[in-house]
Design brief:
Elements (H helix, E strand, L loop, with lengths): L1 E5 H5 L9 E5 L2 H11 L3 E3 L4 H15 L7 E4 L6 H12 L12 E3 L2 H9 L12
Length: 130
């Protein structure tokens, strides 16, 4: 496990001591760039506003074909049900294309998330999103 934290987390002593490696970045932007560079896949655990911001950045990158890496919502206890419903509403109301729903998978548990990642094949996406 590689931990990637901005400097200000270190000041607040927010670290993961079990990490095999700890990378400290200057700020959140550098952190996200480091995460993207080092990651083979993305799994969204239940989280707060910062987690949502990272989710939307990754999904936007996938939509624009800036990354082809798999993305999975780990939907523990239905945590992401309302967000997934919002994506469906966006499609139903024609604010997003139906292929938006192909940008991610939803898994009820870690084993299902890992199975998805291990068998992932990027779906064909339209050439024009905007």
């Amino acid at each position: 496990v590689v931990g990637v934290l901005p400097e200000f987390f270190m000041v607040k002593e927010i670290t993961y001591d079990e990490a095999d490696e700890l990378v400290v970045t200057k700020n959140m932007r550098e952190r996200k760039a480091e995460l993207d560079e080092r990651s083979d896949a993305f799994i969204a655990l239940p989280g707060g506003v910062g987690t949502l911001e990272e989710i939307f950045e990754i999904l936007s990158m996938k939509q624009l074909k800036l990354t082809l890496k798999p993305f999975v919502f780990l939907n523990i206890q239905g945590y992401y049900d309302k967000l997934i419903s919002q994506f469906r509403d966006m499609v139903d109301l024609k604010f997003a294309k139906k292929e938006t729903l192909d940008l991610f998978a939803v898994a009820p548990d870690p084993d299902s998330a890992l199975d998805y990642i291990l068998t992932y094949q990027p779906p064909p996406l339209p050439s024009k999103w905007l």
